[in-house]
Amino acid sequence: MAALGVATGGGNWFSALALGVTLLKCLLIPTYHSTDFEVHRNWLAITHSLPISQWYYEATSEWTLDYPPFFAWFEYALSHVAKYFDQEMLNVRNLNYCSSRTLLFQRFSVIFTDTLFVYAVHECCKCIDGKKAGRELTEKPKFILSVLLLWNFGLLIVDHIHFQYNGFLSGLMLLSIARLFQKRHMEGAFLFAVLLHFKHIYLYVAPAYGVYLLRSYCFTANKPDGSIRWNSFSFLRLISLGLIVFLVSALSLGPFLALNQLPQVFSRLFPFKRGLCHAYWAPNFWALYSALDKVLSVIGLELKFLDPSKIPKASMTSGLVQQFQHTVLPSVTPLATLICTLIAILPSIFCLWFKPQGPRGFLRCLILCALSSFMFGWHVHEKAILLAVLPMSLLSVGKAGDASIFLILTTTGHYSLFPLLFTAPEKKNLFLIGWKLSTSLAWGLWKSSVNLYSLSPLGS
Amino acid sequence: MEKCYLMTAVVLLGLTVRWTVSLNSYSANLCTSCRYLLPGAGKPPMFGDYEAQRHWQEITINLPIKQWYFNGSDNNLQYWGLDYPPLTAYHSLLCAYVAKFINPDWIALHTSRGYESQAHKLFMRATVLIADLLIYIPAVVLYCCCLKEISTKKKIANALCILLYPGLILIDYGHFQYNSVSLGFALWGVLGVSYDWDLLGSLAFCLAINYKQMELYHSLPFFCFLLGKCFKKGLKGKGFVLLIKLACTVVASFILCWLPFFTEREQTLQVLRRLFPVDRGLFEDKVANIWCTFSVFLKIRDILPHHIQLMISFCFTFLSLLPACIKLTLHPSPRGFRFTLVSCALSFFLFSFQVHEKSILLVSLPVCLVLREIPFMSTWFLLVSTFSMLPLLLKDELLMPSVVTVIAFFIACATSFSIFEKTSEEELQLKSFSISVRKYFPCFTFLPRIIQHLFLISVITMVLLTLMTVTLDPPQKLPDLFSVLVCFVSCLNFLFFLVYFNIIIMWDSKNGRNQKKIN
Question: In this complex, is the C-beta atom of B450 within 8 Å of any C-beta atom belonging to chain A?
């Protein structure tokens, strides 16, 4: 009884938080799920029933494999557990197959893989300096960070309702960030390389990693004023980093290179035919651009400046995924979006190169890269906002200024995820509740952290 | 300020859990297509209570008041006839007006029977949530905020645990009922009466009784406590004035609720007949009370005539609750009042007539109120109370939400109150009792250890029974084996708790002597 008392009572709030959110995830099992559910079932079927040579060619279902090979191997591993739940889900021809066992298996697989996310949060908490904290549990930065990350509302609704595997992928990203904070650069680089081959969306933040590792790891020392000391360059470090990236890529893409399937793989990974904006608008710059174009075309039609017969039929607001030509403003090409993105990330990259501020500076640059790519990228999903929100949580417990920015980012970011939830019961209530929960939590915790850090010096 | 945010977060968490549980009801048709869908056929029990509530909306809005409780061509009492007091009918009427505004098909006379749709389900669930939010949750928050002599953090933790109590959530949001309304009113009554707002408290409690007649389980403690207060103030002076005022309040609130039914004697009698169906027998279905458990060994329902059954149950009930009530009348205190609520409700549950398994919620509410004082035993009781409803929850296919909410509740209580460190004699409020016993048996020091062992045995039995019920099939000859076992085990636990709570009340030596400690 005493041992039980120590285990449950005590100060083990982290376990209580992790267990609590896991139980909430279990309650979300019967909620609405999107087509992503069928997507992942299809990938389980493809990787289980077909040989590797067919994985990126299989097209019975419209949801073809469009994630890098490591994710395909992950689905393959899962499929070996899936066969004990329901063999039928692994049949490629069983389109839209959805027995209750399939649902249970898929949902539990997401919940289970979130363990990596929990571990990553635990590691991130170690990187937080908690010495200035007060005695109250709710004022400790570690507690605040754990709540903000473990109970992240956006992750809950995207992963456990809409259905995706962002939990463990974000866990990998947070873990690599934590390793960089802990000065274990090789591990951090390795983890990021692996992550890239799980989901290539993380290319959004690759520049931050590249520049940081080059500047702060390959150059082993700085001049007294903080600028670069060219003769401290270490070839060994550069080569070891390169080797890590090369080996990971070889492991991932090697088999497909051997099968001469690389072009096909890349065409699946980077489908530029899908159009500028995703089905349900990601709230980025191009959405505003398209809206402006629409407004101008309506005005133009009213004022008879435009010829109705020349207006293209496809509508950006129809919720479909397809190519689109703008009417009034110039059409946007993938190259244009790339250039805009690069221009947007340049300032932060410059800062990271010329005035490195250690891991915190890297984190700031990472967030800015994620946000810039979100704003100007091609075919951005709304879910990509999570790439910025999660690392921002790490910064927000450090400084009051960051906390206020985080509040705005997380509120609007999570609000923009609402259209992902299709049906009335979920949309009307759960999100209002969950959004209010996260907002009030963030607000309350920000308040306490503001009290704490109001006297701290402004630099990191 | 921070307390407000944390309390808001706790309330919102409670609401989130409630709403996610309510999404479970059509679990039978979970995935026939991969969209969250319209059910082909609702599950019978939920279809039952859900359809009953919908039917009452149909009846109350389409028929004149005089026909609500009577059998007629438009109102077939065999098909979910109204069997709750008038306030439930008025509440149904209110919901029906809203339903009419949204979609009249939902409550069209005769044609809406068995109506099911996604939108209608959302509407019905929303009515439960709104009722909860307006009545029960503010009462809980206010109760926790008014607790004295504990830190803010503990108040908030207390609110969290009460709001996470699985039994109420599963029955109201899974099975579909409006218990939070009557329990909420009762809690307002408790608040009023404990903090000397006697008239308002009585009014709130009268509303509770007029919403669900099962609240009569709580009526004796209210009566004894208020009577005791009147005696204390002196029956020849202020006490008498208070007594008159209370009587007037009660009579006035009853008249107000029953006004349309007092016009004719037949109306009143018919309503009473619907409320108290004494023809139905000692118990129905499987319930964790004495009579059902006893009937495993001896079929008293068949042996004894009806009026004898009535008399026996009456005698046992009143004998078991008399000591506590007398003590409360002689030494009224809020603390004694809370414990007497538990003991009385438990006595009624165990020995009374026509008890349903959901009536355990009437005992769970007062136990939630004493969570702070005896966290270990209260948590144990609340777990058993949820377990006792297992057959009902399984019928509604609420296994996953049940397991999840029970674990969540257990973790919340364990971390908030450090329950396993509070098992000493003092913490269990058994010190006076133990001292008395030690006068005769000096070696009686092992009580806490016995209780800890009993707890472990109880929990292990509950877990095992749950696993067995879920995984195994009962033998052919005894199809109800697992339900009966669940009831049997729960009943034994409840008897133990009855004895325990009565011991606390009777050996409570702090009352009357040390006024300062009374809370």
Answer: no
